[in-house]
Design brief:
The chain is α+β, with helices and mostly antiparallel strands. The protein has 47 helices and 43 strands. The strands form 10 sheets. Strands 14-43-42-41-15-35-40-39-36 form a 9-stranded mixed β-sheet, with helices on both faces. Strands 17-16-34-33-32-31-30-29-28 form a 9-stranded antiparallel β-sheet, sandwiched between helices. The longest helix has 39 residues, at 1072-1110. It is elongated. Mean pLDDT is 74; it is low at 439-583, 880-970, 1320-1342 and 1374-1462.
């Protein structure tokens, strides 16, 4: 063996790259930056595509038949009958595959032809992405995609920093900081220095680890360590950085993005796989039949046939000397002859028809207007035509979060300041909450002044300027008490928190002559009530038509801040023309603020009034938001823009900006804000940065002689650090926290502490001492931070909404009700994922348990899984037989017996102590359990009695027939797995345990997972559960998951088109997935199954006639029918009716398919087409063929016509049987068809007529051998009587069986059709039928603070590295805060003691508003919980109060989800 060359060694062990040296890099033959996702080229298409198609067993089977038919000695049929259909189906499939691959080529071309600025010969030139080579130095500009994996050399920032967005890789849109080596910063943007850069990079080989890079840079004789912080990955976007330069390390398929993309797999449906299995069975059946007939033929020829050689001569190849030998050879030839004659059991037209049906179904998906998204002008698109019916059998959905479930847009929704809640808007007439939605209506105010009617004698003002265009948001109304009322001027008016009766008493009396001009009375009509009922609900004091108040004479009303709005009456008239089920509502106008953002929406006027009236607490609140953050500000085109590390931070700073507290700029030691037009500059002394253990961040500021600490963080953490004497404020704020969290908002508590100079200097010296300590530095710093972040004053609470895409909660609930399990696989942090889980109803308070798997080792994860398994066993031991053990758990408590709320903690880290019960169950983690008999049967279903009957049988049969562990549909479990724990869960030793628990959970959330882990999870479920999977995502980080699943769905969203280009189906919004599956998927599966059942029936009925005839023709392979009839039977006579069935058939409408998601469950169990259904079709076809042959044979055997002609000839029998077969097929498909269209009528009845036309044309025009046979037979009454008897004999059993099933065992679709035919409609609205609203309350208080935060930004700020300015430009000298070090929280349970104390203090002031929520849901399935105040229950109308639950909070202040094992 010779020694290996340097390139060989490098290729095996490491990667060596030299910048700007093509010759050196060329020896290693690294991949260029060209990418290819297509499967074929022009030269490989034909062989590869044919090879792929002949992998289908049916195609290979027909190829073998074609070869046999080319042998004249054994073929009784012309080879054309097989060759033409086979060539047709291969051509059709090839054209479709070519079209799909051309689309991939186009997308590849678009990516490869993107432009990149590359250094060539010392000059910066534009080159295509595909031309970029390893070792090239490239330039990236702001907001530009990174072309390849690049080592950062220099940036526009003085300290070599740049900021990137990694949405394409991990789905996160928050900014991440990268920093180049200090030694290469000097290169700057000087092209001569960059071209002369000749550093050699030695690094790892290409891999798919996104967060890891190991390498070394050798330059100028020195070696520098390289890590992931110095690498920009392909797919990232440069943000907040003017330019940067880097050297390409990995290109094309070697990049980490492409390494995570996975390979394109050939996908086939479950129906395809079943068909392959069935074809094997049919082939074995044919072989058996052919062997039996061959033996029969040999025996017949040996005993009888040898004596009739004069009339039936043997072929010349048959040996005639020895009869047994000759008979054996004849039998062998007959074997192959029967194989050809009987091949029509599975004709090639089956596959042609399947492809045509799928092709048309794909266009039905593309043309569906209900899945059109007008915002982006995007339709749903079926990018493949082979997987449609698989959409009706999905068992698991794997979804990305960011951009798929959410819009990744944070909005400042509500807040609480000094114990007063802001943000709610109420309709004064009904006391109902006005919920603002994203739908907007634009209309014009018809004049600028209120002008009285000319009939009143008033002077009409001259025409004014063009009317202003006003943006109006629509509002949904929920029965909920709040403190705001809507006024006609678009304002909101505050009212004290009190019950509705007090509201009505406090309102001044109003009649037709005395009306408040400021009150907006918008016409309202609930969709589930009649107009008369709505009119009865309106307050009688409103007067006017439909509750609308006519305009009054006041000319104009000036609103504080200098904004004028007039024309109230005209506004009312315009609003009255909006949809009757919506309310029009204007947001507060912030135009007086020159720095306001036009897209900021706030509807509570009182908060802006409080700020402008210099109310102290509101000023402190917004000043804190404007100062306590790590946001960077820059001016772009004269407009102030913010770059935030997390969207949470951006939303809070944006809110402060719009309310007049504008963050302007920062240096490492100062922050400048503008308050109501006045500039304020603060010296930044310290930033106590955020991390997942501290769950808070603080800033220490000095202005003049005053010094203050501002702190924001998770509410339980802040509550533990407040000084005493705030019990009333804490209790009121906690009520608001519970309400906000119950609405799915992400909450954050704010606090401040005034510091003295002496105290701060003393603390500062001790902090610096701890920071320099070499022993237990983290623990010492933690203690120092705890010391100053104490004795704080509560300022308020913010509530941020992470905006979901429209309709996500309803879609998820409906899909779950259909029996589909939904897993969310996201790169986001655990708390972000859990909060979104609750917001989108994937996690609900009905869940019995939410398991958190967050162990760092195999042992820890195994312990958690074992503990969760025990919890499931205990839960199922307590609940069988409808017995409610939790009544006993609460017998000594004051809680409502229908709801038990237990603390949510990590099962591994903490245990929850339950009251003693016999037998005492061990600790159950994260239990939020509710047992509600009324809702048990109604989840996801209608409330009406008629529809409850619909579901009764189904549920009873399911529950009664299950012997294994049953998870109740209302409760069940959920599992949350961290990425580092998922590595162990996917290991062979824990894989089965993980699957055992996950399969018993209604929902699973995997957070902090890499793109490859997403694919591994999908592969695990495919392999271990043998389940049909669907993956949906919108970014490049989802591509591997999309390719791994049976069905890949791409969302054409904000993260590029990589997911769409790799997907099988593309949609614009997640909510369209519901329609794609429950309507198109279910219909496609239903149609395909019905098509296959009928197709096999008609072909067995046709083919097996030859078998019965064999008994009368000496097993000679003589056909009953005319060979031409055999050739065109499936092509002309029966193809169109069955195609129409497969394309247009539907059992229920699309509306019913969505309203009753349980209609989807047959597809999950493959009930509509399986081996049993196939055997039934075969037996039905065999019975039909037997009757078809024997009745005409009995009639026409030895038959004589009325005029004395003999009619017992072979051709007459064949023509009669063929005609009755066509008539029977027509009758059978008429019974099969549930949904009649014009196409069905034309094809079914037209095919019957077409048969007679073609038969006449073939026999009389072309001159077929059967000329006159059918014509003569039809002249005789015998034919018509025979046909009538035969068809009735065949149809009667089918009708009887259908009526029996319909009457005794009706399916859910049968019941729905019966209800529709009887015109009985459910009283419940469709929304109530499906699921609760997206704003459904939940008990748990969950802080959403800075979930996307990355630790270390505070250190970057105070060190000055993150700044655009150089140190000499700073207002304050550097020195303070530069040595601040982040700490880790070492005692996770240290907060529990104070928390429990706080719980007892505040418990007297809280109300279990979730009891009211359930009472409201039991009446109406309303999504909003009733808000209570002062400990009184006012929300429920059913007469039940909150009972003893008034004295106990549903969730103590300390019980925040953030305590879960961070």
């Amino acid at each position: 063996m010779g020694t290996k060359t340097q390139p060989q060694l490098a290729k095996e062990n490491e990667r060596r790259i030299r910048a700007n040296d093509k010759e050196f890099n060329a020896q290693f033959k690294y991949h260029n930056n060209y990418i290819k996702t297509s499967k074929y080229s022009l030269f490989t298409f034909l062989p590869f595509n044919l090879l792929e198609q002949f992998q289908r067993l049916a195609n290979f089977y027909f190829l073998c038949l074609l070869v046999l038919q080319l042998i004249p000695a054994i073929s009784s049929l012309t080879p054309v009958t097989t060759a033409i259909p086979l060539i047709g189906v291969l051509t059709l499939t090839a054209v479709k595959d070519a079209y799909d691959d051309i689309q991939r080529h186009i997308s590849d071309s678009q990516v490869n032809n993107r432009k990149s600025k590359t250094l060539r010969n010392g000059k910066l030139v534009e080159a295509k992405w595909s031309e970029v080579q390893v070792g090239d130095v490239i330039r990236l500009d702001n907001n530009q995609f990174v072309a390849a994996d690049t080592l950062l050399l220099s940036t526009s920032e003085p300290n070599g920093l740049c900021f990137i967005e990694t949405a394409e890789l991990d789905g996160e849109t928050n900014l991440k900081a990268k920093q180049c080596l200090t030694e290469t910063i000097e290169l700057g943007d000087r092209h001569d220095l960059l071209w002369n850069f000749n550093g050699e990079i030695i690094c790892e080989r290409p891999n798919n680890l996104l967060n890891k890079f190991d390498g070394t840079l050798i330059w100028r004789g020195q070696r520098f360590a390289l890590d992931n912080e110095k690498i920009l990955l392909r797919g990232c976007v440069l943000r907040n950085t003017q330019w940067c330069y880097g050297v390409v390390v990995f290109a094309g398929v070697d990049t980490k993005l492409m390494q995570n993309s996975g390979k394109t797999q050939f996908k086939s449906t479950g129906v395809d796989r079943l068909l392959n299995f069935i074809i094997i069975g049919i082939v074995l059946f044919l072989v058996s039949i052919c062997a039996l007939f061959a033996i029969g033929c040999a025996i017949w020829e040996g005993l009888i046939g040898q004596h009739f050689q004069l009339y039936l001569p043997w072929e010349h190849i048959i040996p005639k000397d020895y009869i047994p030998t000759g008979a054996t050879v004849i039998g062998l030839l007959v074997f192959f002859s029967y194989a050809i004659v009987l091949n029509t059991v599975v004709p090639i037209s089956l596959y042609v028809s399947v492809e045509v049906i799928r092709f048309v179904q794909s266009f039905l998906i593309n043309w569906d207007e209900e899945m059109y998204y007008p915002t982006t002008n995007t339709y749903a698109k079926a990018r493949t035509t082979t997987l449609n019916e698989e959409l009706g059998q999905i068992q698991y959905i794997f979804s990305d979060k960011t951009g798929t479930l959410t819009q990744n847009i944070m909005t400042f929704n509500k807040c609480s300041i000094n114990g007063r809640s802001y943000g709610d808007v109420i309709d004064l007439r009904t006391g109902e909450l006005v919920e603002i939605t994203e739908q907007q209506t634009i209309f014009q105010n018809s004049n600028t002044n209120n002008r009285p009617s000319p009939s009143s004698g008033a002077i009409v003002a001259p025409p004014a300027a063009p009317p202003p265009i006003i943006l109006v948001h629509k509002a949904e109304v929920h029965a909920k008490k709040t403190s705001m009322v809507v006024t006609s001027s678009g304002e909101a008016q505050v009212l004290p928190d009190r019950p509705r009766s007090d509201l009505e008493r406090s309102a001044p009396p109003m009649d037709a002559s005395e009306k408040r001009p400021g009150l907006k009375h918008v016409r309202y009509s609930a969709p589930s009530r009649s107009q008369d009922e709505d009119a009865g609900r309106l307050s009688p004091r409103l007067g006017g038509c439909g509750g609308l108040s006519p305009p009054v004479g006041n000319e104009e009303r000036r609103i504080s801040g200098g904004f004028k709005r007039s024309g109230a009456g005209c506004m009312q008239r315009q609003l009255s023309r909006t949809s009757s089920c919506d309310k029009a509502l204007q947001s507060v106008d912030f135009s007086a603020n020159p720095h306001h953002e036009s897209d900021f929406r706030w509807y509570d006027r009182t908060l802006l009034d409080a700020v402008r009236s210099d109310e102290e607490h509101s000023h402190v609140f917004f000043r804190l938001l404007a100062l306590c953050h790590t946001v960077m500000a820059e001016t772009v085109d004269g407009k102030l823009e913010y770059q935030a590390q997390s969207p949470d931070e951006a939303a809070l700073v944006s809110a402060a900006r719009n309310f007049g507290f504008v963050f302007r700029t920062r240096t490492p030691n100062s922050i400048t804000i503008e308050v109501m037009g006045q500039t304020e500059e603060y010296e930044l002394l310290n930033i106590l940065d955020f991390n997942n253990v501290r769950k808070r961040m603080s800033v220490i500021l000095r202005r003049g002689d005053s010094m203050v600490l501002y702190c924001k963080g998770a509410d339980n953490v802040i509550y533990d650090r407040l000084h005493g004497g705030q019990e009333d404020l804490k209790a009121r704020t906690q009520d608001h926290l519970n309400k906000f969290a119950g609405e799915g908002l992400r909450t954050l508590a704010l606090a401040e502490r005034r510091l003295t100079e002496q105290y701060y200097n003393d603390w500062r010296s001790r902090q610096q001492e701890a920071a320099l300590s070499m022993d237990s530095r983290e623990q010492k710093l933690n203690a120092i931070y705890e010391e100053i972040e104490s004795e704080m004053q509560l300022v308020g609470v913010t509530a941020i909404e992470d905006k979901l895409q429209d309709g996500v909660p309803k879609s998820i609930a409906n899909l779950q009700n259909a029996g589909i399990k939904i897993w969310v696989l996201t790169g986001d942090k655990q708390e972000t994922a859990i909060n979104i889980g609750y917001s989108c109803q994937l996690l609900t308070d009905e869940l019995a348990d939410v398991f958190i798997v967050d162990g760092n080792s195999v042992e820890e994860v195994e312990k958690q899984l074992r503990q969760f398994k025990e919890s499931i066993k205990i839960y199922n031991r307590f609940r069988p037989g409808g017995f409610d053990p939790f009544d006993r758990l609460n017998s000594d408590s004051n809680m409502d017996p229908l709801s038990v709320t237990m603390t949510q903690t990590s099962a591994f880290m903490q245990e929850t102590n339950l009251p003693p019960t016999p037998p005492p169950p061990p600790a159950i983690s994260v239990v939020t359990f509710r047992w509600d008999e009324k809702n048990k049967d109604n989840k996801g279903g209608p409330d009406s009695a008629e529809c409850n009957d619909l579901f009764g049988d189904e549920k009873g049969s399911e529950d009664g027939g299950t012997a294994s562990i049953v998870v109740d549909e209302n409760t069940g479990f959920a599992l949350v797995v961290n990425g580092h724990s998922l590595v162990h869960c996917l290991s062979p030793e824990l894989e089965n345990k993980f699957l055992d628990i996950a399969s018993q959970c209604k929902a699973v959330i995997c957070c902090r997972v890499t793109p490859l882990q997403k694919a591994l999870v999908v592969e695990l479920i495919k392999r271990a559960k043998n389940a049909v999977t669907l993956a949906i995502g919108d970014g490049a980080n989802d591509v591997s998951m999309i390719k791994a699943a049976h069905i890949g769905v791409g969302i054409s969203g904000q993260e590029g088109l990589q997911a769409v280009l790799s997907s099988d189906y593309s949609i614009a919004q997640f909510r369209y997935l519901e329609r794609l599956l429950l309507v198109h998927g279910r219909w496609s599966y239903y149609r395909m199954c019905k098509f296959l059942r009928y197709f096999f029936y008609k072909n067995f009925a046709f083919t097996l006639c030859h078998c019965w005839y064999s008994l009368f023709c000496g097993f000679s392979a003589q056909t009953v029918f005319d060979p031409m009839f055999i050739s065109v039977y499936n092509l002309f006579y029966t193809s169109l009716p069955v195609l129409a069935l497969g394309v247009f058939e539907q059992d229920v409408s699309d509306k019913n398919s969505l309203e009753f998601p349980r209609l989807y469950t047959p597809g999950l169990k493959s009930e509509l087409f399986n081996i049993r259904e196939f055997i039934y079709s075969v037996l039905h076809g065999a019975f039909t063929s037997l009757v078809l042959f024997l009745i005409p044979y009995g009639v026409y055997k030895d038959g004589v016509s009325a005029n004395g002609f003999i009619v017992s000839d072979h051709m007459t029998l064949g023509a009669v049987v063929a005609t009755i077969l066509i008539v029977d097929n027509t009758a059978q498909i008429s019974l099969y068809t549930s949904y009649w269209t014009v196409v069905n009528h034309v094809t079914i009845w037209g095919s019957l007529v077409w048969y007679f036309v073609l038969d006449y044309f073939y026999n009389y025009v072309i001159g077929g051998p059967y000329v006159g046979s059918l014509t003569q037979a039809m002249k005789d009454l015998t034919f018509w009587v025979t046909m009538l008897i035969t068809v009735m004999t065949l149809v009667a059993p089918v009708l009887a069986y259908k009526f029996y099933l319909l009457d005794v065992h009706p399916s859910l679709s049968d019941k729905i059709r019966q209800k529709s035919l009887k015109k009985i409609h459910s009283r419940a609205s469709s929304d109530v039928r499906r699921t609760a609203s997206s704003r459904r309350g939940r008990r748990s208080v969950r802080s959403g603070y800075a979930f996307a935060h990355q630790e270390g930004f505070g250190r970057l700020i105070t060190s000055g590295k993150i700044m655009h300015k150089l140190p000499q430009d700073f207002a304050f000298p550097l020195g303070l805060g530069t040595k601040k070090t982040q700490v880790l929280h070492n005692n996770l349970n240290s907060a529990d003691g104070p928390n429990s104390k706080s719980n007892n203090v505040t418990g007297q002031h809280m109300v279990n508003n979730n009891t009211n929520m359930r009472q409201n849901q039991n009446q109406n399935h309303s999504s909003m919980a009733d808000i209570t105040a002062d400990g009184r229950d006012i929300g429920g109308d059913d007469g039940r109060g909150s009972g003893g639950s008034d004295d106990m909070s549903p969730r103590a202040p300390c019980q925040d989800l953030d305590t879960i094992n961070l």
